[in-house]
Specification:
Radius of gyration: 31 Å
Structural class: alpha/beta
CATH topology of the largest domain: Rossmann fold
Strand content: 15-25%
Helix content: 25-40%
Protein name: Glutamine--tRNA ligase
Strand order of the largest sheet: 10-23-24-25-21-22-11
CATH class of the largest domain: Alpha Beta
GO molecular function, one term: ATP binding
Subcellular location: Cytoplasm
Number of helices: 13
Catalytic activity: tRNA(Gln) + L-glutamine + ATP = L-glutaminyl-tRNA(Gln) + AMP + diphosphate
Distance between the termini: 54 Å
Largest sheet: 7 strands, mixed
Subunit structure: Monomer.
CATH architecture of the largest domain: 3-Layer(aba) Sandwich
Shape: elongated
RNA sequence: AGCCCGAUGGUGUAACGGUAGCACGAAAGAUUCUGAUUCUUUUAGUCUAGGUUCAAAUCCUAGUCGGGCUACCA
């Protein structure tokens, strides 16, 4: 399939430890120099930015080494999985810019897996255990004490074969029997203490329907699926590293294609959570609006928020791949996003907190159109016309009645530039009876049309504005961190991570005023509201009569930072 | 607790026995019709203790700290 463009680091990029292994294997002509990876999600939830790291790694390696990457759904637990997720996962991967070479489902291998189980039984390497869950658990032993062998451990091959086939044919209820690998109940690797291979589950599977009532466990299904697909490098996250001895054991005993497993550290980001379990808590607890809430680190949420695939890919390449379990600062992600949006987003003007300005020396009842540059970073984006008139709106915090010296914006008697328009001088602030400023009376200099003074005088500040008459109203949603703490794994004793939820993570601004070109903006196009940030029209709630914009990310703001000090 | 994995500026990473480098952040400055962008400069690091070696971030041993495993989840 056609490779997507890989992230923008080129040849100068250093190889991470996994790519080093792959490069070495190619060099040594292992598997005839063939490279084949896979991305193996369980279809039981939506993909998140952590999955993006794995996707970029697996698909990226395939592209870089001229290999292949499969998408394989690890659908071995019918009670948790659903086609809804199968579809959303594919959508998200494609959106990220990758295309799989082969699409597989572990459930397609159930018959082969069953046959291999029989082979292990015949080799006396697997047996049917008829103990209860509780008994099995108790016999497992502890980290310091060995486990005990099941009283069913030495059943004959024939009895095992018979029982296993009757398990398959549905003779038994859930939990009556399991199939176990016969390894070593005294092993220091707890995972090798006769791990379960199959359990009985009378449940309908989203793909195989009611064809099966026994389902393989992850450890028995995953490595064998890798082997069937002749995966050369099976890349997974760190928590599976204790499973590797078992992964290798099955492959060795079955004598099948020797896939190898390599583990890397999953992504952790500050101020957010990154697990399906916690996402479910957020959605079910109505802390967010759903899996695609723009505050969620799910790919669907990030897409709705206005993240671009390129930004995510660049981020993944910047953070690297190691076995160190770190915590990546969210600003790294946000900067990757700003860098990408800065190049591609067209500029528009929008006033989020409008303050009316009457330009007293501008002729009443008249208006004009001015030229504005769409993207100073990209000349090909061209220009557009923006209407200007006697009454405009400016941002409320662009005016101060008693401004400090370093405030470059509007104040009584001060002159600023209206972006792409004229110089404007504030003459008077009109207040209501409570002393709130409700309107500004200003004058403009007709000689400064376009934004430059013929006499060469300079102004320190340029502010954005919209025409009162021509602007359109919109709702704007601003987002902040989901959590108030950097690391939810680090909560004080006895505190649940949900106590750290930021109750101000969403603020909804109504009555915002946008320049009219935004009314028929192609909804999918990211835009920069000048001096405010990058925004995108909300894909779900925005309609012709009711514009809704999401703030993707703010611009860097060294002014407000200074104020804090 | 046993086993496994890990530890380099604030954060994320590179250096593969031979000059500790990069990015982000932070700080200062320049430019600027976005207090954005861009550019310049500065900042700050090898967990600890031993050992091997002419030479250790790198190899060895022990310790400390962090993570994982002890599901009929993946």
């Amino acid at each position: 399939m056609s490779p997507a463009p890989q992230s923008d680091d080129s040849e100068s990029a250093k190889l991470d430890f996994i790519r080093e292994i792959v490069a070495r294997d190619v060099q040594a002509n292992t598997h005839q120099g063939r490279v084949h990876t896979r991305f193996p999600p369980e279809p039981n939830g939506y993909l998140h930015i952590g999955h993006a790291k794995s996707i970029c790694l697996n698909f990226g390696i395939a592209q870089e080494f001229g290999g292949k990457c499969n998408l394989r759904f690890d659908d071995t637990n019918p009670t948790k999985e659903d086609v809804e997720y199968v579809e959303s996962i594919q959508e998200d991967i494609r959106w990220l810019g990758f295309e799989w070479d082969e699409l597989h489902f572990a459930s397609d291998y159930f018959e082969q897996l069953y046959e291999w189980s029989c082979e292990l039984i015949r080799k006396e390497l697997a047996y049917v255990d008829s103990q209860t869950l509780e008994e099995i658990r108790q016999q497992r032993g502890t980290a310091t004490e060995p486990g005990q062998e099941s009283r069913y451990r030495n059943r004959s091959v024939d009895e095992n074969l018979d029982l296993f086939s009757r398990m398959r044919s549905g003779e038994f209820a859930d939990g009556e029997h399991v199939l176990r690998a016969r390894i070593d109940m005294a092993s220091k690797h707890l995972i090798l203490r006769d791990p379960l291979m199959y359990r009985i589950r009378h449940a309908e599977h989203h793909r195989t329907g009611n064809q099966w009532c026994i389902y393989p466990m992850y450890d028995y299904a995953h490595g064998q699926s890798d082997a069937i697909e002749e995966i050369t490098h099976s890349i997974c996250t760190l928590e599976f590293d204790t499973h590797r001895p078992l992964y290798d054991w099955f492959i060795e005993k079955l004598g099948i294609f020797p896939s190898h497993q390599y583990e890397f550290a999953r992504l952790n980001l500050t101020y957010t959570v990154m697990s399906k379990r916690k996402f479910i808590d957020l959605v079910d607890g109505n802390y967010v609006d759903g899996w695609d809430d723009p505050r969620m680190p799910t790919l669907s949420g990030m897409r709705r928020r206005g993240y671009t695939p390129e930004a995510i890919r660049n981020f993944c390449s910047e953070i690297g791949v190691t076995k160190y379990n770190g915590l990546t600062d969210l600003v790294v992600l946000e900067n990757a996003l700003r860098a990408d949006l800065n190049k591609r987003a067209e500029r528009r003007m929008a006033v989020l907190d409008p303050l009316r300005v009457v330009i007293t020396n501008y002729p009443e009842g008249e208006s004009e159109e001015l030229d504005a540059v769409n993207n100073p970073e990209d000349e090909s984006a061209g220009t557009r016309k923006i209407p200007f008139g006697r009454e405009i709106f400016i941002e409320r915090d662009d005016f101060m009645e008693d401004p400090p010296k370093k405030f470059f914006r509007l104040g009584p008697g001060r002159e600023v530039r209206l972006r792409w328009a004229y110089f404007l001088t504030c003459q008077e602030a009109i207040k209501d009876e409570d002393g709130n400023i409700v309107e500004l009376r200003c004058t403009y200099d007709p000689e400064t049309k376009g934004g430059n003074a013929p006499d060469g005088r300079k102004v320190k500040g340029t502010i954005h504005w919209v025409s009162a008459e021509h602007s359109v109203e919109a709702e704007v949603r601003l987002y902040d961190h989901l959590l108030k703490v950097e690391n939810p794994a680090d909560m004080p004793e006895g505190q649940d991570w949900k106590e750290a939820l930021n109750e101000n993570s969403l603020s909804v601004l109504k009555g915002c005023r946008l320049e009219p070109s935004l009314a028929d903006n192609d909804g999918a196009m990211p835009v920069q509201f000048e001096r405010k940030g990058y925004f995108i029209q909300d894909a779900r709630d925005s309609a012709a009569g009711h514009l809704v914009f999401n703030r993707t990310v703010s611009l860097k703001d060294s002014w407000s930072k200074k104020g804090r000090r």
